[in-house]
Amino acid sequence: MEFNATFLVSIISFLVFVEIMNRIFYVPLTKVVYERKNLLDTNYDDAKKFDDDAQGILADRDNRLGEADKKSRKIISERIEGENAKGKSLTDDMSHKAAEEIQAKKDSLAQEKASATPELDSKVVGLAESIASKVMGMDVKIRDEALLNGVK
Questions:
Q1: In tens digits, what is the pLDDT along the chain, a chain of 152 residues?
Q2: Quick one: which of 144, 136, 142, 111 has its CA closest to 124?
Q3: Are 116 and 123 in contact (CB under 8 A)?
């Protein structure tokens, strides 16, 4: 192989081309690649941080929802118990009033019976006298107190 000036010019031309390409193309391209890598790393770290924050917020929300659910169930059960107690109280009051009314009606009926008994006794005596008169063919008067008591 022969080394002459053409070879030397070719080597120098190649080195100049490499230096020009390095300054114009490779260095800016490498810089863009590193900047992009840094941007991606930063964005990934930010996304990871935001994801962790979101998971914390979701856990806090779930805790709050659980507590609110427990509180609402407690309030509902307390209200149900209160209303059941009111209902039982009203039922007891109404039962007591009904028992009082029943007793009042029984007393009223007993008084009516007591007031109606002498009148009925006299009617029974009258009917007995009438029947006895018709059966015996003569006037019969029942005035014996023991007999009247036996009629009752």
A1: 577 888 889 999 999 999 999 999 899 899 999 999 999 999 999 999 999 999 999 999 999 999 999 999 999 999 999 999 999 999 999 999 999 999 999 999 988 888 888 888 878 888 887 887 777 777 667 655 545 555 44
A2: 142
A3: no
Cα 53 from Cα 13, distance rounded (Å): 58
Local structure of residue 23 (DSSP, 8 states): I
Q: How far apart are CA 22 and CA 4, in angstroms?
A: 27
Eight-state DSSP code of residue 25: I
Token pair, residue 121, equals 């006794």
Q: Per-residue b/e over 121-141, b at no fewer than 16 CB within 10 Å? A: eeeebeeeeeeeeeeeeeeee
Q: Quick one: CA dihedral 136, 139, 145, 150, positive or negative? A: positive
The 8-class DSSP code of residue 3 comes to -
**Single pTM value for the model:** 0.45
